[in-house]
Amino acid sequence: MSTAGRGPMLAQPLQRPSAGRIAAHLGLFVLGAVVGIAGSLVQAGWLPGGLLLALAGSAGLFLGGARATGGRGGAVAPAAGWMLAVILLTASRPEGDFLFGAGGGSYLFLLGGMAVAVICATIGLGRRPGGNGARLAK
After folding, report:
1. pLDDT, tens digit, for every residue of 25-53?
2. In degrees rounded to 5, what are phi and psi of residue 96?
3. Rounded percentage of the chain residues whose pLDDT exceeds 90
4. Looking at the chain, which terminus has fewer C-beta neighbours within 10 angstroms, N or C?
5. In b/e form, how buried is each residue of 11-35, taking b as 16+ CB within 10 angstroms?
6. Which residues are CB-contacts of 73 (< 8 A; sequence separation ≥ 6)?
7. Which pLDDT value is given to residue 82?
8. How far apart are CA 117 and CA 82, in angstroms?
9. What are the angstrom distances between the C-alpha of 2 and each of 9, 12, 131, 132, 138?
10. pTM of this prediction?
11. What spatial distance separates the first Cα and last Cα of the chain, rounded to whole Å?
12. Non-local CB neighbours of 108 within 8 Å, separated by 6+ positions
């Protein structure tokens, strides 16, 4: 696992990400917040179908972000935006208004979305060393 004869990949110094990668992760973060807000509105509207639609949309965004950026960070960025938006929507206001009800669907959306985020970040594409992919000779 050496990169161009410079030693192992884990021993290489960290490099600053490019501006395009930073912009992509910020865009995925905002898109994750939008999907979290939309999912919180849809899941209560059509209870069994809306919940599944909201979770499937979240999973699609998380996996799509991982595939688009080529790393797990592409799944973590929208998951962080989703989590921030959903947590802010669960807080009650001083007037007593809140978006989520106390039903089981709301808890399934919260816990299911967190589980989907962890699963998608885990199975997302990790860093792979460059090279031809051939095994070393024994």
Report:
1. 999 999 999 999 998 888 877 778 888 99
2. 95, 5
3. 34
4. C
5. eeeeeeeeeeeeebbeebbebbbeb
6. 25
7. 93
8. 9
9. 6, 10, 9, 12, 16
10. 0.77
11. 14
12. 51
